Amino acid sequence: MPPVRAPEEAPTPEPGPSEEGRGTPVGRRVVLGMLGLGAVGVGVGGAVQDKLDSVLASVSAKDPTGVVGLLPGGGGFRFYSVSNSIPHRGESDYRLTVGGLVDRPAGYRLADLRALPQTRVVHDVQCVTGWRVPKTAFSGVRLSTLLDAAGVRPGGTAIRFNCFDGVYTESLTLDQARGADILVALTMNDKPVTAAHGGPVRLYVAPMYFYKSAKWLSGITVTKDVQPGYWEHYGYDVDGWVGKSNGRSDDPTT
Ligand SMILES: Nc1nc2c(c(=O)[nH]1)N[C@H]1C(S)=C(S)[C@@H](COP(=O)(O)O)O[C@H]1N2
Ligand SMILES: [Mo]
């Protein structure tokens, strides 16, 4: 069997969705202009950084050159949103629901999540399209903590994740979900996860390709079977272990 290829590498007869290559490439002048704007972001508060991130996101979504990775605040990350937008939620309107095959369904506000034990994981981030950001810190609540609080019923074998962009979904098996390095993350590099990076709450699945780390996390549902996520419908592996899936042989992340 040939290795499964990422859709952006596949010779698709029709334009299909891919992580990169959406829209028209942004010219070099525009990106260099961004460098000037980027300087404004140094030493400013969260709201301005969020603004900057959202501009970065809209530029880098169309810029496969990687120049955006050099921008202050970019940090080597590419920004992705299959919904072509950056949704915003905060203290008053953010909710994370935990439901499905559980004894005690729950709804968490940001303050509720912050009040639970926090775990910090430092690991390399690796996207299936090839880019890697070494030693990135995420912290938040272990997914296993939320699952234990909810009480998974017999028959529950997998988790479906929903996002408040209304489009993206992801999945893990229950065994994978219970890993100590699987976080419902509230911070990235010790600052609140910005809107562009999927804040206020994103999933962080350290040992897998970054597509498993759903941004703008809003729902955790325990299911009977694995329900493949957004990119998995376009050929990505459900088990997205770095270096051992998607026909790739990336060096192990640490
Ligand atoms: N909701 C949502 N989550 C998502 C995505 C997305 O488009 N929407 N893209 C995934 C992919 S393919 C990657 S590589 C990372 C990118 O995260 P970043 O934008 O913080 O770099 O988010 C993942 N989670
Ligand atoms: Mo990705």
Automatic annotation (TrEMBL):
This protein's name: Oxidoreductase molybdopterin binding domain-containing protein
InterPro entries: OxRdtase_Mopterin-bd_dom, OxRdtase_Mopterin-bd_sf
Oxidoreductase molybdopterin-binding domain residues: 86-231
Annotated stretches, region: Disordered: 1-25
Bias-annotated ranges (Pro residues): 1-16
SUPFAM superfamilies on file: Oxidoreductase molybdopterin-binding domain
